[in-house]
Amino acid sequence: MKIKSIRHSVVTNEDLFLFEKIKEGDTKALDLLFKKYYHKLCRFGVLFESNSHIIEEKVDDVFIKLWSNKDQLKKIKNPKSYIYAILKNDLLSVKNNYQIRPLQNEDHLNSSSLYPSIEDEIIANEQKEINKNVIKNVLETIPKRTRQIFEMSRIDGFKYKEISELLEISPKTVENHIGLALRHISANINKFK
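Given the sequence above, the corresponding structure tokens read:
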């Protein structure tokens, strides 16, 4: 638990540093933040909008807003939650209903391998693909809202409190959904192997 809080602290400090650099007019910092969060924000956007073109446009708008309002960034204490909230609000203003969709394409999740030979790399990539498909299949059997909360916690790295604020539910409800997801995964993982 301590390692996770240290990691979260490092990520938060890195994001705060990037926000500070953006505030100073550093376009490279904006580019780094864009590269770090673009695909994660697109995946998050699928929870609120089914049209991928609208999602991509709104994700782009998040970074345009950051740059346009860079003098306001000094007030932000949690950059990650801030950019996710901007996207959520923009998408909800376009479409006022939740539409949760399973992840369609995870090709953007680059897997770099440290294996010495091509054969080992191919085997490792095949195993990763099998594992990814097993996890994806198990996640698709979890209730939609529970899956959404689980992915925000385990994939996007949000804390329970951040999820509760973004989704306007109590932290205890988030905890209950995560527990339900973990029990479901544990009980069903062998069915998909």
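The first helix runs from residue 2 to 23. Try to locate this feature in the token string yourself.
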